[in-house]
């Protein structure tokens, strides 16, 4: 049984670096198209289907089965596509402050208005590029200066089109155990939106007293939650 870790918007697989050593099982952190090991992919061409296919490709390349699929933040709209692609390989799903808007809606329409304004200001020529200042305000409220600097050094550009693509949540209708890790100090995906996602998913809920990037700010705490879910 393995963990497969899917990062959110504006980051790559290296956002999980602090977490992985604390996990009780092997872990695969996937780079979605346009960053890290897939940096050659043109961001302007990336779709949600491409993101799901990257996860499928990495899982099949290692022939992983009985997977605990962990999705953070924006990965909440990639996970259901993965579940439709390779349902037989996934044992359960864990969503960490994951964006789960109503089926068929756009992510951009569902996020907090204050955060949405920051996001829209960060889009140029189809690329979503966070500033360090904006990201620090949304993502680093529970970090000391050194930890915040390390997190911000890992910021990556992303495809703005993903924010405006209608989402397909049909994969969440599959009969798989699912857990939502509710981050109580999150200033990016705020309380109201997390509660909406939880209601849509009808998931088991575990509270964690951290900000949005729990895998960096509190890796041992998040790992303990994941290890408990893994069993």
Task: Characterise this structure.
- The protein has helices at residues 48-61, 79-85, 107-110, 113-121, 132-139, 145-152, 161-164, 191-201, 214-217, 219-230, and strands at residues 3-6, 27-30, 67-72, 90-96, 123-124, 127-128, 158-159, 178-183, 204-208.
- With 231 residues, it is an alpha/beta fold.
- Helix 1 (48-61) packs across helix 2.
- Helix 2 (79-85) links the parallel strand 3 (67-72) and strand 4.
- GO terms for molecular function: hydrolase activity.
- InterPro entries: AB_hydrolase_1, AB_hydrolase_fold, Sec-Metab_Biosynth_Hydrolase.
- Keywords: Hydrolase.
Major pleated sheet? 6 strands, parallel
Distance between the termini: 10 Å
Total strand segments? 9
Fraction of residues in helix? 25-40%
For this structure, the quaternary state is: single chain
**Tally of contiguous helical segments:** 10
Unreliable stretches (pLDDT < 50, length at least 5) are none
Report the radius of gyration as a whole number of Å: 16 Å
Q: Secondary-structure element order, as H and E?
A: EEHEHEHHEEHHEHEHEHH
State mean pLDDT (0 to 100 scale). 93
Strand content: 15-25%
Structural class: alpha/beta
Q: Sum up the overall morphology in one term.
A: globular
| Largest sheet, spatial ordering of strands | 2-1-3-4-8-9
């Amino acid at each position: 049984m393995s963990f497969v870790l899917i990062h959110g918007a504006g980051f790559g697989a290296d956002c999980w670096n602090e977490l992985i050593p604390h996990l009780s099982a092997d872990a695969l952190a996937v780079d979605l198209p346009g960053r890290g090991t897939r940096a050659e992919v043109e961001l302007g061409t990336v779709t949600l289907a491409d993101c799901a296919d990257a996860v499928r490709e990495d899982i099949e390349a290692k022939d992983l089965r009985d997977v605990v699929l962990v999705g953070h933040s924006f990965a909440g709209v990639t996970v259901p596509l993965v579940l439709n692609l390779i349902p037989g390989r996934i044992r359960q799903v864990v969503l960490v402050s994951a964006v789960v808007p109503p089926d068929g809606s756009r992510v951009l329409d569902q996020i907090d208005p204050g955060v949405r304004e920051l996001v829209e200001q960060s889009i140029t020529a189809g690329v979503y590029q966070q500033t360090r200042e904006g990201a620090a305000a949304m993502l680093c409220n529970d970090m000391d200066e050194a930890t915040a600097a390390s997190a911000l050094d890992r910021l990556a550009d992303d495809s703005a089109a993903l924010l405006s693509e209608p989402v397909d949540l049909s994969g969440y209708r599959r009969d798989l155990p699912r857990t939502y890790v509710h981050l109580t100090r999150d200033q990016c995906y705020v309380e109201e939106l997390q509660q909406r996602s939880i209601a849509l998913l009808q998931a088991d809920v575990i509270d964690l007293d951290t900000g949005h990037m729990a895998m960096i700010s509190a890796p041992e705490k998040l790992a303990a939650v994941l290890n408990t879910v893994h069993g």
